[in-house]
Design goal:
heterodimer, A: about 1350 residues, alpha+beta, six-stranded antiparallel beta sheet, 34 helices, about 50% helix, B: about 120 residues, alpha/beta, five-stranded parallel beta sheet, globular
């Protein structure tokens, strides 16, 4: 009896007994709800697990899953004891009621292998068991009613001590922990499922899903039992149902395996191919990665379903290998998911395979054979197409089918027109095919095709008819050849670019054709360098026709502003040379000619053309030769195309030995060695060699591929031309390099992305040479901004194909250098940059510029106005001086406008144009005056002169030079006016007339309608009109009219002592003053003060009727003129004063004489008359009355003495004798003696002074003392006469009442006249209450 | 009968001396006045034969007084006296004033006066 039936016999009865006991317990229970339903569901559940476990155990005795299933079933039944009415049994039931759940967790985590995979899983399972064993036991010790919802349950047999607190805590702990545990298990299951392979999932999914659901709802049930019994109950029921499904799902899985095995039947009978077998296998195993491999008899090893060699993987958690073998040995192997390990299906499949594998091995061998034969095709570098004459693809072979433009599976059956190449190429193909049909010979054509990645490939098509209505098309990739050609062209382009960027000689010429400068890098000029500068261009020793072409091109360059190029040939000592002259304008009247020798470029262009033609012809003519050779070296087959040659004689080649071929032996040996290697490895071998054929060296390339077990195919291609091209390319590059070597400049070849491709310089580079090529331009140690500029210019050069030129400054070795970079494209994605040091040229340019700047500064800072105009008067430009004066900036708004519209006043345009006409004929306008309105509105007088010049564009025009003569003219006008005033002063006796002259001149100077001269009254209450002038009809003040001081301009001048310009419109005047101006019909007024001898005398005012008629500055002008007029007025006043003084002196003299006459008449004369009469009477009485006569004589004697005294007094009054005889000091003391007041003397002169000075001083003191005595009520007078700096200072000071007025009374006036007559000054200071001080200063030196 | 005479002069010492000389030489000095206005009034009240007029009087010029005393028939009583001896200075003025004549003061005498009256 086998083990399996024994198991069934043991377990089934046990299960039935268990089920019976539990049924009995439940049915007899006093607290079980729905006992019948419980029995039905519980029984079904328990038995299902046990039966499923038995089946599993039977099928896989080593798998523990069966045991676990049975364990769950029995534990389930044991939990049914909780329905028991007996306290002990019930308590036991409660104790073990959770064990089934722990087992269930174990079952799920170990499914399907029955073993736990990880330490985590083992930990979880152990935790489950501990929880199941301990939790309920612990609760039963303290809880009287461990099942809360069951009120009828028996008493707790294990209760030790009822403790509600412990119960509550324990219940919460157990339930919480159980819920967390169950949810953790669910999470573990989900993670496990996610990590599984698809094959594993197939088995896992249903069982794990049901299990997880069971545990989830069980967790909810346990977790909510205490506080949400209804939910707990519902969740419990769901968990039960899910729990019940687990054994059934397990059984369903088994059933599925059975069904799959049923599908194996047809598979075993049908002759599937290996690929198809593998596909079926994957489907049945539900393992898409499963692989079927076949073990080959010879040479051993495995191949996969595609026939490719296959390496069996190591057994492991990732892959499992099931070998398939029969009695003869291993046939093959299944590589599959480890989850399938031990599955019946797998075994059945292996059995089915075993039957078929022999056949499959034959197929694989055939495939390998086919593969070898296809190697021949693969060795050919070409694609082959068999195409019907009407264009349908019949068959094809492609080196790389993915490179075909149609998917390989769609190609056959489609037409050539479906093939996505340009229509033109297809038409060319079909036309060539027709031609091949017609001629019966091989036809070739070339075409281009763009691959999906955008690269363009070049192909050559060879067409041969292969039947009456079909032909063979062999396409070959000739991209490499084309690329070589392209490379050659690029190299040539680079050389050309290099040449283009290299100026050889540079000339700077004036537009008229004079050499201004010369620079040659290496070429020798045709003229002596010493004499070039300054020479005429036509003296240069080249054909005149060429020089004329260059000058004409220069004119074109000036006009268009673009660079011109002239190419020409020169036949000199060095033979015929090609040169190129580039002509660029520089500035206004100069241009550069850069002459370059392009002979090399020309020759290389010609050579290249010839070379290209030759190579294309050769390349087109070269087909391939082919040999099939056995591994022993016998030639099995051949096709030879010249110039490939194998033997001197081509008879009996087949079967002959390769070593007998007309090859150098080493080539044969090498070919054989490679042939054997190709056969051994199955890989294509190649070698290149050179050999001489008909005296000419040929390069050939042999491609060797295995064509059978012991034979190989050699395809020989003559690559002489390609080699030659490569050689030429190298030569060309060497030439470029050589060219570069001789260049004095630094050269970079730079790719579009900024990588240095090449570098050359005679100068030390800025970083080590060996690190430059391949590095990024952005790493080059120059400022980033410069690199950005170079890259941008490179981009432009590549896009436009034009030479780009940059200039920059760089500090090298502590010296600032100017450099020039010339950038030109040298390929599709690269360009050349030639850097030349142009420091010297820059310095010259800077010198030139500084000279220009100097001229510009002179022009702009000169006080002269400069303006360049065209012949008709259009402004070209003008200097800052003119711009500043007129406030009009020299910009596009003025340039191009007519000068006469811009700067000439309307009334003077005719004069200007007349001057232009003169200039047209004489080249010079001559001097002429125009007025120019300044930016401030002032009119300036400008003296202009225009001379003809050429402007920067070569157009003839005039340079207008203007000199501002405003100040000079005004000065002249003012001088003339002053002269007229002075003449008037000198000739006019009437002051009024002089004032009128002044006003007329003032009005004329300022162009005013009226002018008035006003004199301020001494008290400042008004100004009186003293002079006037006006245009006819203009308002005029009357002479003597008082102008009230009511805030008008005359008042303002009185207050400020400054000239003022007032406009009625400004509204700044007080109403009364404004009304006065309105009445006068005046809007614009200018008034300036007149100051005579330091005091404000009056004012002069001019007026005009229109508003704002006087330009700014008029008030200053009037003020300046008035200052000059003041001198004339001062003279006039001085003259007036002089006349008054003279009159006073005369009057004083007359008065004095009258006084003398009166005194004489009244005094001495009367006494003498009386004396005379008295003597005559005495004489008559002498005889008759001697006594009377005696009395008469006595009284006559007294009378005579009185008369003498009076005469003396009189004489003293005329001029004191003591002064004449004894000097000033004694004379003053004599005065003091006669003074009624005490006189105190200060300093008195020790030496005699000039007589008239002494007299003046004497009379000052005399008059002063007389006044003091009469008016001052003083107590003391002090007198001082001193000599200071050649002046006599006379001072008489009293301590009287003061308040003396020098203007009143003739005494002081007479003294003033006397003192001023001696050019002295008399001052009287007599503040009331402070005494009086009379002081005279009289010069005498 | 002696002729009556009025002396007009602002200097009292001269009037006294003139009275003494003229009276001693036969003239009847009927009055002495010191100014022009008094002279005109005295001339009316006294009607002297001769009025001796000093040229320089404090109020009215002697010639003016003379011209007011002048009569149509030319028999004016006025005789002008001056301190100056130079008759040329006053000749035309004397004629214009209508006075009888001119006597320098220092040469005053009855004879000189009588000569002018004739």
């Amino acid at each position: 009896m086998s083990r399996t039936p024994r198991l069934w016999l043991a377990v089934v009865p046990a299960a039935l007994v268990m089920a019976g006991i539990v049924t009995a317990v439940v049915l007899t229970s006093d607290h079980q709800e729905l006992p019948v339903l419980s029995v039905a569901v519980g029984g079904l559940t328990g038995l299902s697990f046990i039966v499923a476990g038995l089946i599993a155990r039977t099928r896989r005795p080593v798998n523990r899953t069966g045991l676990l299933l049975m364990g769950v079933g029995f534990a389930w039944f044991a939990a049914g004891l909780t329905a028991a009415s007996s306290s002990l049994v019930w308590t036991l039931g409660v104790t073990i009621s959770a064990v089934f759940a722990a087992l269930f967790v174990h079952l799920l985590l170990a499914y399907p292998s029955g073993q736990l995979g990880s330490r985590w899983e083992r930990g979880v399972v152990v935790t489950g068991y501990v929880l199941a064993a301990v939790a309920n036991v612990a609760l039963l010790l303290f809880d009287r009613t461990p099942i809360e919802s069951c009120e009828d349950c028996p008493s707790n047999a294990f209760l030790v001590a009822e403790n509600e607190t412990a119960t509550t805590i324990l219940t919460a702990l157990v339930e919480g922990f159980a819920a967390v545990f169950l949810l953790g298990v669910v999470a573990t299951l989900i993670l496990r499922w996610r990590r599984s392979s698809s094959a594993a999932r197939r088995a896992l999914t249903p069982v794990l899903l049901a299990g997880a659901l069971t545990l989830f709802f069980l967790g909810i049930s346990v977790g909510t039992q205490e506080f949400w019994p209804t939910v707990a109950e519902v969740a419990g029921w769901i968990a039960s149902v899910a729990f019940l499904t687990v054994p059934f799902l397990f059984l369903w899985g088994l059933l599925q395996s059975r069904l799959a095995r049923a599908e194996l039947g047809p598979l075993m009978r049908t002759g599937y191919s290996l690929t198809e077998f593998q596909r079926e296998l994957r489907r049945l195993l539900r393992d898409p990665t499963a692989a079927l491999t076949v073990c080959l008899e010879k040479p051993g090893g495995y191949i996969d379903a595609e026939g490719r060699p296959f390496e069996l993987p190591e057994e492991g958690p990732e892959r499992a290998v099931t070998e398939i073998a029969d009695e003869d040995g291993v046939l093959g192997a299944l590589v599959h998911d480890p989850a399938l390990r031990g599955e019946d299906l797998l075994e059945d499949l292996a059995a089915a395979l075993r039957l078929n594998l022999q056949r499959l091995r034959s197929t694989a061998a055939l495939q390998a054979s086919e593969r070898r034969s296809r190697a021949l095709l693969r060795a050919l570098p070409d694609n082959m197409f068999r195409i019907s004459r009407d264009g349908v693809y019949l068959d094809f072979h492609a080196q790389d089918p993915t490179q075909l433009r149609l998917p390989p599976e769609r190609l056959i059956g489609s037409t050539v027109w479906d093939y996505p190449v340009p229509h033109q190429a297809t038409a060319q193909l079909m036309a060539t095919a027709e031609h091949a049909f017609e001629t019966g010979s091989v036809q070739t054509f070339e075409f281009e095709a763009a691959l999906d990645d955008g690269t363009v490939v070049h192909r050559e098509g060879r067409i041969t008819p292969s039947g009456p209505d079909e032909f063979l098309l062999v396409t070959r990739d000739i991209t490499a050849r084309k690329r070589a050609e392209q490379e050659l062209r690029s190299s040539e382009q680079r050389s050309r670019a290099l040449l283009e960027a290299l100026p050889d000689s540079m000339f700077r010429l004036s537009r008229e054709g004079t050499f201004l400068d010369y620079h040659a890098s290496d070429a020798t000029p045709l003229m002596d360098p010493e004499t070039i500068v300054g020479a005429n261009v036509y003296d240069y020793p080249v054909p005149r026709e060429l020089l004329e072409r260059i000058m004409a091109a220069a004119e074109t360059a000036f006009k268009t502003g673009t660079r011109q190029t002239v190419e020409y040939e020169l036949d000199d000592d060095n033979g015929l040379r090609y040169q190129e002259a580039r002509i660029t304008p520089s500035g206004e009247h100069e241009f550069f000619v850069i002459v370059r020798d392009v002979t090399d470029r020309k020759r290389s262009e010609q050579n290249l053309q010839i070379s290209e033609q030759r190579s294309r012809a050769l390349l087109e003519a070269i087909p391939d030769s082919m040999f099939r050779i056995s591994c022993e070296g016998r030639i099995l087959d051949y096709r030879v195309e010249p110039p490939i040659r194998l033997f001197r004689s081509e008879e009996d080649i087949i079967g002959s030995d390769i070593y007998d071929a007309d090859f150098p032996r080493e080539i044969s040996e090498r070919t054989m060695a490679l042939g054997r290697k190709a056969v051994e490895t199955g890989e294509l071998q190649m070698h290149e060699y050179a050999l001489e054929i008909d005296g000419r060296l040929h390069h050939q390339e042999a491609r060797i591929s295995p064509s059978g077990a012991d034979e190989f195919l050699v395809i020989v291609r003559d690559i002489t031309e390609r080699k030659r091209q490569e050689q030429e390319l190298r030569l060309s590059e060497r030439r470029s390099r050589a060219l570069v070597e001789v260049i004095p400049d630094t050269m970079f070849r730079i790719s579009r992305d900024g990588t240095f491709l090449d570098y050359h310089s005679h100068r030390p580079p800025l970083r080590p040479v060996e690190t430059i090529v391949g590095s990024s331009a952005f790493d080059y140690p120059v400022p980033r901004e410069l690199i950005d500029r170079v890259m941008a210019a490179g981009e432009v050069a590549l896009e436009t194909g034009e030479l780009q030129t940059l200039e920059w400054e760089l500090e090298l070795e502590g010296e600032l250098r100017h450099q020039e970079g010339r950038i030109t494209g040298s390929g599709e994605d690269e360009y050349f940059m030639i850097i030349r040091d142009v420091t010297e040229r820059k310095q010259q340019e800077q010198k030139l510029q500084s000279e220009r700047d100097f001229v510009a500064k002179v022009v702009n800072s000169a006080p002269t106005y400069f303006c360049v105009i065209h012949a008709e008067g259009k402004i070209v430009r003008y200097n800052d001086t003119l711009a500043d004066a007129t406030g009009r900036v020299d910009d596009e708004t003025t340039r191009g406008r007519l000068f006469q519209d811009t700067f000439v006043l309307p009334g003077e345009v005719d004069e200007f144009e007349r001057r232009l006409q003169i200039a047209h004929t004489e080249g010079d306008t001559g001097e002429f005056e125009l007025r120019l309105r300044s930016g401030t509105g002032e009119l300036l007088d400008v003296l202009w002169r225009g001379i003809d010049i050429y402007d920067e564009t070569g157009e003839s025009g005039y340079l207008l030079c203007g000199l501002d003569v405003t100040v000079r003219k005004r000065h002249e006008e003012e001088q003339a006016a002053l002269r007229r005033v002075a003449v008037a002063v000198a000739s006019e006796r009437r002051t009024e007339r002089i004032f009128d002259v002044v006003t007329e001149e003032v009005a004329r100077l300022l162009g005013a309608n009226t002018a008035s001269l006003l004199r301020y009254e001494p008290n400042g209450e008004a100004a009186v009109t003293v002079g006037r002038w006006s245009q006819p009809g203009a308002y005029l003040d009357r002479i003597g009219e008082r102008v009230p001081m009511v805030g008008g301009p005359v008042h303002t001048v009185y207050e400020t002592r400054r000239p003022v310009r007032v406009d009625l419109e400004e509204g700044t005047l007080p109403p009364e003053a404004a009304d006065r101006l309105r009445r006068m019909g005046v809007n614009s007024v200018v008034v300036a003060p007149i100051t005579v001898s330091g005091r404000l005398w009056g004012a002069v005012g001019v007026s005009l009727a229109p508003p704002n008629a006087f330009p700014p500055g008029s008030e200053q002008r009037l003020g300046e003129f008035t200052r000059l007029v003041s001198l004339a007025l001062a003279n006039e006043e001085a003259r007036e004063q002089l006349a008054a003084s003279r009159a006073r002196i005369v009057e004083a003299g007359d008065t004095e004489r009258r006084r003398l006459e009166r005194n004489l008449h009244d005094g001495a004369q009367q006494r003498l008359v009386s004396l005379s009469l008295s003597l005559r009477l005495a004489q008559s009485k002498l005889g008759s009355d001697p006594h009377a006569a005696d009395e008469l004589l006595s009284s006559a004697s007294i009378e005579l003495a009185l008369a003498l005294e009076e005469l003396r007094e009189l004489a003293r009054g005329i001029h004191p004798a003591v002064l004449t005889e004894r000097g000033l000091g004694p004379a003053l003391e004599s005065l003091a003696d006669r003074s009624p007041l005490p006189v105190e003397f200060g300093q008195l002169p020790e030496e005699r002074l000039p007589g008239q000075v002494e007299a003046a001083a004497y009379y000052v003191v005399s008059e002063a003392l007389a006044n003091v005595a009469k008016y001052a009520a003083a107590t003391l007078v002090s007198v001082r006469v001193a000599q200071e700096n050649g002046r006599a200072i006379v001072e008489v000071v009293d301590d009287g009442v003061g308040g003396a007025d020098p203007a009143r009374g003739s005494g002081l006036r007479g003294l003033t006249d006397r003192v001023e007559a001696l050019e002295g000054q008399l001052a009287v200071v007599s503040e009331p209450g402070s005494g009086t001080r009379v002081r005279a200063e009289i010069p005498f030196a | 009968m002696s002729r009556t005479i009025l002396i007009v002069d602002d200097h009292p010492s001269f009037r006294g001396m003139a009275r003494a000389i003229l009276e001693s030489e036969g003239f009847d000095v009927v009055g002495e006045v010191a100014d022009g206005a008094s002279a005109l009034e005295a001339a009316k009240t006294l009607s002297p034969d001769v009025i001796l007029l000093d040229v320089q009087l404090p109020d009215i010029d002697g010639f003016e007084v003379a011209s007011q005393l002048a009569t149509k028939n030319g028999n004016s009583p006025a005789i002008v006296m001056t301190s100056s001896r130079d008759a040329r200075d006053f000749g035309s003025l004397v004629a214009k004033s209508g006075a009888r004549g001119f006597i320098p003061k220092a040469e005053l005498s009855a004879e000189a006066v009588s000569a002018l009256l004739e």
